[in-house]
Amino acid sequence: MKIKITDLHPTQLYLSEKKLHDIQMLDQSAEIINVDPISILAFGNCFLITDGHHRAYQALLAGRDTISAEFDKDGGDEIYHLYAQACEERKISSVMDLKHHILPQDEYEAKWYNWCDGFNQAATLLLKRKADETDKANR
After folding, report:
1. Would you say which domain of life the source belongs to (predicted)?
2. In angstroms, what CA-CA distances link 10 with 14, 34, 40, 68, 101?
3. Range of the domain at 49
């Protein structure tokens, strides 16, 4: 399906210069037709990107209004909602907002992967505590 890029909400804080360059090179070739659709989750009146931030950003740079997308069937809705909230807190609410968050590959890996590890641990504890509280309330 085609989704308007303006309806997409990021769930990651950074883009990699290297990944973006690779996508740009692919975009300039005839192989752009073979690029996988991005993965999304429905959330309110927008769609959370679960995979494909670099592809969405490149599509926007290339002047496209829409991008191919498919719904993410792997679950993790709650964690992606928390990722989207973390992005909102950092003033990242659209694909274009990632413009000032493009990092060299080594810095991207260090910042993004370290942040994800810590965030995922905290989020897992939070979600478990919420589930325990709900379970106790339903007894």
Report:
1. Bacteria
2. 10, 23, 10, 16, 12
3. 2-137
Q: How many domains does the chain have?
A: 1
Grouping H, G, I as helix, E, B as strand and the rest as coil, residue 62 is coil
Dist. CA 10–CA 48, nearest whole Å? 6
Residue type, 10: P
Q: Answer whether 51's CB lies under 8 Å from 72's CB.
A: yes
pLDDT for residue 112 = 84
Mean predicted lDDT score pLDDT of the chain: 86
CATH number for the domain that contains residue 69: 3.90.1530.10
pLDDT-derived band at 35, boundaries 50, 70, 90? confident
> Cα–Cα–Cα angle for 10, 62, 11, nearest 5°?
5
pTM for the whole structure: 0.81
Coil, strand, or helix at residue 11? coil
State yes or no: pLDDT of 41 exceeds 80: yes
d(CA 16, CA 112): 9
